[in-house]
Every structure is written in structure tokens, then in C-alpha cells.
Write a structure and sequence with these properties.
It is built from 17 helices and 19 strands. Helix 1 runs antiparallel to helix 3, helix 9 crosses helix 11 and helix 14 packs antiparallel against helix 16. Helix content is 35%, strand content 20%.
Length: 472
Amino acid sequence: MTADLVGRLGQIVGPAGLISDPGGMAGHVTDWRNAYSGTAAAVVRPGDTGEVAAVVALCRDAGVAVVPQGGNTGLCGGAVPDSSGRQVVLSLTRMRRIRDLDVANQTITVEAGAVLQSVQEAAAAAGRLFPLSLGAEGSCTIGGNLATNAGGTAVLRYGTMRDLTLGLEVVLPDGRIWNGLRGLRKDNTGYDLKQLFIGAEGTLGVITAAVLKLFPAVRSRATAWAALPGPQGAVDLIGVLREIAGDRLTGFEIMSRQSVEFVLRHSSGARDPFGDQHPWYALVELSDTLPHAGLDEVIEAALGEAFDRGAVRDAVIASGSAQATALWALREGISEAQNHEGPSLKHDVAVPVSRIPAFVERTDRALREAVPGIRIVTYGHVGDGNLHYNLSKPVGSDDEEFLVRAEALARLVYDSTHAFHGSISAEHGLGHSKREIIADYADSHGLDLMRGLKQLFDPRGLMNPGKVLPGL
């Protein structure tokens, strides 16, 4: 890339929108885990959709690839440039406006660079709820959430970003702007184009704004921590909860004992809710729009029924918001706590809920046969079949010796996932890390259709190349 082109990019976005020195670009060319890194010719930070369109059009004419980026909190390298030094990182972080909040229509229109937590807060200030919730909500952006079809802890009741999105504004790879910002729940006028861009990780265009669904504010909650004999207990417990609590069941998380041990060891103030150790745990949350909905009684009844069926060994119901927060901290602290135990191999998979117990048994056995002493950190949103199947090295073993086996161990997890008719990426996307391996598990005709869409939208292959699709 010539200095002239960088200068022309600067003319579009202004001094505040152009970063071209290596020090300033450092946070944009390496992901937050330092797992993926590259180099870039420049980082551009447009201030509005018109500037995004102008940047994309200029890069298209120059034959320069564009890497869209939000909060750069992904886990698969989907927002990191390659090592060529010729790509432009297009950061949406200056585009943070809440464009509209329509209480009567139950929608909020936000720009792609808006931080998830700020959208939650804007909804709350209007007496409404935007329900997407995940560990990185203080730094991840709505554009990134859309690009990866984020799920989080409330999918069970509210769905993924696909379910939460009514309309999009997108800059196409040739610089044109598609305005699909309609807050309609019924719109049967042809193809639902917005769904092509959700989960596409910026390979078909740059999402610049979205119309999102809002819900009535939650006014009462009940949170419980349950000890389980095994994953089958989780499947049985969630069945009981669905029977008794219905759609008031908002969150249901499962954690192995190994996961909780890491949090207890490394998270300040973390305490085990029970005196005895148990092999598995579940974190359950009910919610209601009524201020006095009697949820503690509902969750107590469900836990009692599950105990009678042998699905639950012990349980505690949070006595207030402070205790509920402490219970959620045990779940939310797992990923960070695992980092203190050396390198971790992270896998984000999904299988049918009914198959989780058999899947865990088979996969654990294969991993322990391959690496005796391996520490398996399994946790996730069991209500939708999504498990984070993370691996830590055996105690006292060598880091590099463990990392060199990463691909083989991933194959064990993914082969088992495929055997149970699951997905090797539930909510983190494919990015760079899984783009080649997906060819071994996805339907070949489906991949051909996706390649055809990529060719249609981005015939020059300049929009986030090297991500999602194998061979492109």
C-alpha cells in the first residue's frame, strides 16, 4: 500500500480516525488473548456510515483488503489482519450512537460500535431490557455481536443475536450502503437479507447499525446453585424447570468441578457454596416482569422435584442480589481463572441437549486416553446445547509440549461433536482458527452455497479474506 492511499484514507476519516504508527495500531492487530496477531497498513476509525462507505470504496478500487473490527474480543481470530502488512483494519469504535429508542415499538436502533453494556444501560433507562449478556459485555460491540451471532447466558429465553435483530444497515464490499433498518416484526417481502450478514464475521459487508428488539424490564429474579451427580442430572433438571417454571427460565449454566476449582483457586473472594465437593454444578436463573412473582417458591419446587428424581444432590437459593452475584461470579470467572493454569485450548461446540451426557462421557474418555492427567474445563449454556470444552495441561507438564498437541486434541473434540450431530462452533464463529477444519465437518453443498454468496457479494475477495470459508 502506498503512502498516498493512507493519506487519502486520512482525508476521509480525519486525523482522529487514522492510526498508522505501529504503536497506535498494536491493540488492533493482536487479539485480547495474544493468540492471533498480524500487521496492518493502517487502522481507520470512521465516524459515520458515509465514511465507512467511502473507505470501503477506496480500498476496493485500490485492491486492498479490509478487516472489519469491533471490540476485538473474539476468540477465533476473526477480526485480526494477516501478516502481509497490506490490509486495512476498519474499526467501528467511533460509531457508538444510540440513534433511536422506540418504547412503543419495543426497539432500539444503535450503531455498530456501541458497546453492549451501553445498549443494556440505554434500554434500562427507558424501563426496558436488552437481554444479550456475556462476559465481555463491557468491551464487546454490537457489530461484533452481530458478526458472530453472539449467544450468551440468556439464549434459553431470548435467543441469539439473530433472534434479537429486526433490521440492519450494511456497507457492501463495493461501497454501496444497504439500508435495511426497519423495526418490523412482520416483513414478508422476499429474502431476509439481514440474516446473510449476521454470523458472517464481516466477510460479506460491514454492519454499521442495527434495529434490536427490547423487552419488558425484569423486576424479580431467583437464582440457585445446584450440585449434580453428572451431566445427565443437568438434562433432567432443565426438564423439570421447563415443566414448572415455563418461560420464566432465563439462564441455565453447567460447570464441571474442574472449572469451579480453578475459580476458587484464582478468583479473589470466590467461595464454594457447599461444604462437600461434587462432580458437576448447575447455575439456574428465573426472571419475571412482576415485582413479586414468587420465583423463590417456583425454583424451590423445581429443585425439590429434581432432588426426588435423583437429578440434584444439593442446592442453595440466593438470598439476595449480592449472593446471586457471587454465584454468577463462579460461572463468569472460569475463563480468566483457567488462564492462570498455563496455556488453554478452547473449543466452543454444540450438541443436542439430550445427547450431552453421552457426548461428555465419550469426549472426556478420548482426551484422557490421549493425554493422561489432562484437565478438562467444561462449562456452558446447556439449555441450548452449547458447551465450552476447554483443556489445560497436566500439572507439571511442559507448555510447549502441550501446545504442540493442540490440533490433535481439537480433532478429538470435533470428531466427537460431529459424531453426535453437533456443531464445532456454537457462538464464537469460525474466524481464522476454524476456517480450514470446517471443511471436514460441514455439508459440502452448504459450503458451495456459501462460497457462491461470497463470490456474489465480494467477487474480488477483499472483505475480511482468510476468514470463515476454507480456501478463500
